[in-house]
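Practice problem: Di-heme cytochrome C peroxidase
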Amino acid sequence: MKKTSKIILFVLVVVALLCGVYRLANKAPSASLESNAQMAEIIESSGCMACHTANPELPFYAGLPVAGKLVKEDIRLGYRSFDMAPMFEALQKGEKVSEVDLAKVEKVIADGTMPLAKYYLVHWGSSVSDTEKQMALAWVKSQRTAFYPNPLADAQWTNEAIRPVQDSVAVDMRKVILGNLLFHDVRLSADNTVSCSSCHGLNTGGVDNKAFSEGVGGQLGGVNAPTVYNALYNFVQFWDGRAATLADQAAGPPLNPVEMACKSFDEICEKLNADAAFKKAFEEVYPDGINQNNITNAIQEFERTLLTPNSRFDKYLKGDQTAMNAEEVAGYDLFKKYNCATCHVGENMGGQSYELMGIKHDYFADRGTELTIEDNGRFKETKDERDRHRFKVPGLRNVALTAPYFHDATQATLEDAVIAMAKYEVGVDLTQQEVKQIVSFLQTLTGEYQGKLLTNANDLQK
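Answer key — structure tokens:
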């Protein structure tokens, strides 16, 4: 045996022995501890923060020739896919943990896929005992019960990461009526040709089914328009998250030179104030009259009503086992198996986190077209390099009606989108049968608006 090989073997044996000693000393947290404290101990003792944080404390063996290479690559990939620092901070403070983080932790613990087996020898304490697994899964369930209750679901689904869409939420109907009028009012654009509904048609799945929407003068935007349906559930608005609320989002397009192209809201207010009947109706709801805050507040209140409950999937979650057929149920099982339900969570099945486009493969290199400013995603706002190519996860409700897909509209069909997401986000090449089953499941997500099942007017015209 060569000298180098002997050294490497010796290092591995020593590390293995040290790991064994560590695991003997590293017992599961006491059952008497509160669940948050138990989970904090598990995260620390299992080495999670050694890979899933921006500035980890490297162990001494990170400098060794074999172990060090594995450690550094482990850290790069771990942090790339999941930054656990916000979750750990919330955990220590007893605050609400993101439901995406809960779903990610639950999935890898339940599957036993984290920590990775190949890293056991170089990450001391990285294995998780059966007792710790049960504690971690119980903690996830307790967090969901406390912060993400699911009263609409049948008992067997009450702790799913996905919840049925509500039938309605509390709103001020006077504002809703005004918001509806404003949503469809072309006077919000400079040349009186474009309204909110021009790009977010309520009869076309809340989008316009175009790769890029047309603004004043036929100008094209640079990103695919997200659906307005169920946008209430999103934690931020726009692909890059630059709007914190629906009202903030409503304030953007009117002043965007490519979309509605108004110089200011004063220009819009002047036109609306010239309409005596509208002005009178507006002031009955907003005594201080027509201004930017009131316009966007009214639109926000209207958009809060754009919920689409009672999809066949929702009916299934509520206990109707006949609402989905065997192929669709199989598709849902695959949706969970391949980690889709770790990011596409909550009522809207998405919209709760920013995720990297191309975790497993370089999506933009494979796309083969020039990068645009929109491809930067969240980086546009934060200038943090980790946010480059990260986007707010789109909600999947009514997804069968909202083609084309992705921020760059490169995927023409649901089949295309499913294949691409599996490849670039999960690192899996799906079989034709799996694609068919997942697409069948996604087609069950079409819900009802105002008591009628959504359909796509464009499809009806074909």
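Discussion: Residues 173-303 form a domain with the Cytochrome Bc1 Complex; Chain D, domain 2 fold (CATH 1.10.760.10). Students who identified this feature from the tokens alone can consider the problem solved.
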